[in-house]
């Protein structure tokens, strides 16, 4: 996966590639959870 800041908008861009859509979803959830925890907004 690739996580970077946007050059044109105030947000992060996450690009994920995997063999299956289920694997993509798992990666997206893990990254989103880690961002939430790191930012103090997490579970």
Model description:
The chain contains one helix and two strands, in the order E-E-H. The model has no long low-confidence stretch (mean pLDDT 94). Strand 1 and strand 2 form a beta hairpin. With 43 residues, it is of the alpha+beta class. The chain is flat and about 30 Å long. The chain has one domain (2-39). It has one helix spanning 21-39; strands at 2-5, 12-15.
Summarize the structure.
This protein is an alpha+beta fold. It is 44% helix and 19% strand.
List keywords for this structure.
44% helix; single chain; 43 residues; two-stranded antiparallel ribbon; alpha+beta; 1 helix
Strand content bin: 15-25%
Shape designation:
flat
Q: What gyration radius follows from the Cα positions, in whole Å?
A: 12 Å
**Share in helix:** 40-55%
| Count of helical regions | 1
Coarse structural class: alpha+beta
How widely separated are the two ends?
Answer: 23 Å
Task: Name the quaternary structure.
Answer: single chain
Largest sheet: 2 strands, antiparallel
How is the largest sheet built, in terms of strand order?
1-2
Whole-number mean pLDDT: 94
Q: Regions with pLDDT < 50 over 5+ consecutive residues?
A: none
- Strand tally, please? 2
Q: Could you spell the SSE succession in H and E letters?
A: EEH
């Amino acid at each position: 996966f690739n996580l970077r800041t946007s050059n044109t908008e105030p947000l992060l861009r996450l690009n994920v590639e995997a063999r299956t859509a289920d694997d993509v979803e798992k990666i997206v959830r893990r990254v989103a959870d880690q961002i939430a925890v790191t930012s103090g907004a997490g579970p």
